[in-house]
Amino acid sequence: MHSPKGFPRMEYRSGRAFTLVEMMVATTILVLLMGIILGITSQVGRIWTSVTAKGDSFTAAQAAFDGITRKLSMATLNTHYDYFDINGKAAGDAGYNQIPARYGRQSELHFIMGKALLSEQLSHALFFQARLGRSEKMNGLSGLLNSCGYYIAFRDEERPAFFNRLNPGMPSRYRFRLMEFTQQSEDLSLYVTNGNTWFTTSASTTSRPLANNILALAIIPHKANEKPESTSLAGNCEYNSRVNWSGAEQPATMNQLPPVVRVVMVAIDETSANRTLQNISNADSAAQALGVNYGVLFQNAANLSADLVTVEDQLTRRGINYRVFQTDVAVREARWSN
Questions:
Q1: What does the alpha-carbon distance between residue 104 and residue 317 come to, in Å, rounded to a whole number?
Q2: Is the preceding peptide bond at 168 cis, omega within 30 degrees of 0?
Q3: Which contiguous run of DSSP H or E holds residue 290?
Q4: Are strands 322-330 and 75-76 parallel, antiparallel or unpaired?
Q5: 251-280: per-residue pLDDT in tens?
Q6: Which end of the chain is more exposed for a tag (fewer CB within 10 A), N or C?
Q7: In the predicted model, what is the mean pLDDT of residues 237-249?
Q8: CA 128, CA 256: separation in Å to the nearest integer?
Q9: Out of 102-106, 160-164, 236-240, 261-265, which region has the weakest mean confidence (pLDDT)?
Q10: Model-level pTM?
């Protein structure tokens, strides 16, 4: 074939195209690669979402735990020495017979922890005084004394009153909540009440939620050279600086701070709580749903490690995400003797 005059010669080459089979194989490989990439992307997304959710869920718990340990380290009794009568009553106490017979540690302040200090508490509760400087009327006085306390309660979510008038109303949202009790310096009732009434009469109405989904709080005082499980100070998980002086020797814990306190806290995430506690408004039913028996767990310091294993096992069986926080807190103003 000749090209028209003045135009270059065109050469035609025949090329072999892809067959239908080859196209199908290539398409199949491409689909497989895209499926693998999408699967990896989806898995990474799920992992990221899970890690982020866990981190967000336990951030508040970590902050609450740090707050407890920081304030606990600042606990004070302002212990001094004074005369007592033969019945162990100090000068100024009701019933003091005006005849000094003994000389020992005395304090107007109070450090107490136990398993049944409040009617609604679950696991342990702790109450004490510390120089936090909390006051609504006085500023710049960081050494002012405050009363503090921590315990766990199963409560509904606090909300403004008008939410209850909505139609339809908002559903209840009961959770295990770590409650914080704080008395302002001007409201300190420690000096005008007897026994434990400085916190029992107002803790349930003035405490605020510090963190949600806190399942257990264990407080074990012990000496610096002891392990919490073998403590001689609070083997039954009870400590009271206001014990009575009934024997010949002043009780070791009387008007005295523990030198070291083991603090243990178990938290679960909101996703697990929402799945497990939905439509539950009773503390016993909620504990049963999570496999936690408060009447058995954390009753004795010697069983602390075993009790933690039991809780972790029950939560793992139910597919509940959890985290255990624990540390030893050195109480700065402890001047241990005996």
A1: 52
A2: yes
A3: helix 283-290
A4: unpaired
A5: 999 999 999 999 999 999 999 999 999 999
A6: N
A7: 91
A8: 12
A9: 160-164
A10: 0.81
Q: Rounded to whole angstroms, how far apart are CA atoms 338 and 326?
A: 27
Q: Is the dihedral of CA 330, 138, 179, 207 positive or negative?
A: positive
DSSP letters, 97-122, are: -S---EEEEE-SS--EEESSSSTT-E
pLDDT in tens, 320-332: 999 999 999 999 9
* Residues forming beta bridges with residue 131, ordered by sequence position: 145
Q: Which of 81-95, 100-114, 135-149, 224-238 has the highest mean pLDDT?
A: 100-114
Cα distance between residue 121 and residue 309, in whole Å:
22
Coil, strand or helix at 284:
helix
Q: Which residue pairs from 90-96 have beta carbons closer than 8 angstroms and sit at least 24 positions apart in sequence?
A: none
Q: Which amino acid is at 321?
A: N
Q: Supply 243's token pair.
A: 């014990």
Nearest alpha carbon to residue 307 among 321, 319, 324, 320:
324
Provide the β-strand partners of residue 151: 179
pLDDT digits (tens, 9 = 90+) for 41-51: 888 877 776 66
Q: How many CB atoms lie within 10 A of CB 49?
A: 10
pLDDT digits (tens, 9 = 90+) for 49-79: 666 656 677 999 999 999 999 999 999 999 9
Tokens encoding 188: 């300190």
DSSP string, 31-90: HHHHHHHHHHHHHHHHHHHHHHHHHHHHHHHHHHHHHHHHHHHTEE---EEEEE-TTSPB
Q: What is the pLDDT of residue 183?
A: 92
**Sheet strands side by side (includes 322-330):** 214-222, 260-268, 322-330
Helix (H, G, I), strand (E, B) or coil at 208: strand
Q: Is 274 left (phi over 0), alpha (psi -120 to 50) or beta?
A: alpha
Give just the sign of the alpha carbon dihedral 142, 143, 145, 147: positive
